[in-house]
Amino acid sequence: MDTPRIPAPAAALIGLLGVLAALGAGHLAAGVLEPGASPLLAVGNAAIDATPAVVKDFAVRTFGTADKLVLLIGMAVVLAGLGVLAGLLSRRAPRAGQALAVGLGALGMLAVYTRPDLGQFALLAPAVSLFAGLGAFTWLHGRALDVRATDGLAQDRRRFLLGSVAIAAGAGLSGLAGQLLGRRVDVAASQDTVAPVLPRAAKATPIPPGADFAADGTPTFLTPNADFYRIDTAFSVPRLRAEDWELRIHGMVERELRISFADLVNRPLVERTITMTCVSNEVGGPYVSTATFTGVDLRALLLEAGVKTGADQLATTSSDGWTCGTPLSVLLEPDRGALLAIGMNGRPLPAEHGFPVRMVTPGLYGYVGATKWIVEAEVTTFADFEPYWIRRGWGRLGPVKTQSRVDRPNGFAKVPAGRVVVAGTAWAQHTGVSTVEVRVDGGPWRTATLSAESTVDTWRMWRAEFDLAPGGHTVECRATDRSGYTQTAQRADVVPDGATGWHSKFFTVT
Ligand SMILES: Nc1nc2c(c(=O)[nH]1)N[C@H]1C(S)=C(S)[C@@H](COP(=O)(O)O)O[C@H]1N2
Ligand SMILES: [Mo]
Prior knowledge:
This protein has 13 helices and 19 strands. By secondary structure, the chain is an alpha+beta fold. Helices cover about 35% and strands about 20% of the residues.
């Protein structure tokens, strides 16, 4: 007699269920131990770090803030496919499926092992995942062979079907339970304890009336927290509590500082309104937002620690191991105003924007001066430490380039004939925008009306009106900053130190 073979659909199902059991059990174990140890999340995080910079830049550009969701869906599809494949290769002997369970389990363990923010117990989560996958697969495989051997005896069929349903349900419930347990770090409660501290801060420079042309289609001067652009490498948002937070400022300093959250908020608190920009922002792109941040002056902390001569970089690390390097020459400028921020627009930092504490450095792109979930700061040298994005080919210093954008009309809009309003945004953080010029169809440049200036660290809006004949038109803008520099027309890619070029929009007057 031939060795019995499991029918292909059943074999595929067994493979899929093995993967589900592994992921569900691993997620539950991680929920109990350490949420970040979920094999799915840990592998996702490792994938983000291992992804070549070009692919990552593409992902940020294409999917923006949804890039992690796309990755998650992609991983789910790949894992399901592998499960089905291994199942189909195991129609006689279970070896292929078992090998997959062990292989994926090992991958999960490796991913957890290499996360800097996870303790050694975290390894239990992918281990549980491995054994759950192996066990579920092997058991179901055996039941399927029983069905085959007895030529489909009703009781064997029932056992296989019930077992499959139970494993699917168990995996789903475990995954859900793991998700709920993982959220037990009560960020909201911790944020509630921070909220009453914020009003103690010295008020920011008041925002003058007329600081935006929102009625003409520009963004509002302050970006609501929910609309503030978000860019980071964190696959799952770190969930920290202010009560547990501590920052160590060490390295080339006279006195090492260990600062708890309570210590931090016992220092003078200030508010500063700052426009942040991401180096990945394309010409005309959306990764620029403004908030009033509440926090402690970072320069004052560095002076307290006493920076030793020879040091030129502040290397900061987030709770999930992302690293950033900021030029000390910038941070120590008397009027730079970099913050360790705890508040954003009068609210505690949202978890996605770095709760409980983040850095913000006016005039530098986020990747060199805005570490979220900051837990460590080492005074060091550029020679001694290469941060995350620098290793991936981005520029060391990261000053924000003077830029401007057309916000209205929308690209390819149809606009009624007559007077046409064009409006947009310009930024030149820490230098200040002095003029914006605008032109239509390559005609003469005209000076636009600027919105009231708040500080040199914030964006300004611009507007102008044109009488335009029906037909297609292209509008372009360019800003000049207070150093006298006018934006170059020369197009440069975002890599390695920020895009250049004039933004233009095509629209039709009807
Ligand atoms: N921990 C951590 N901080 C980070 C990043 C990150 O990936 N991890 N990305 C940086 C980048 S590239 C930018 S542009 C800003 C964006 O801050 P936001 O998401 O609050 O807008 O955060 C910076 N801080
Ligand atoms: Mo960024």
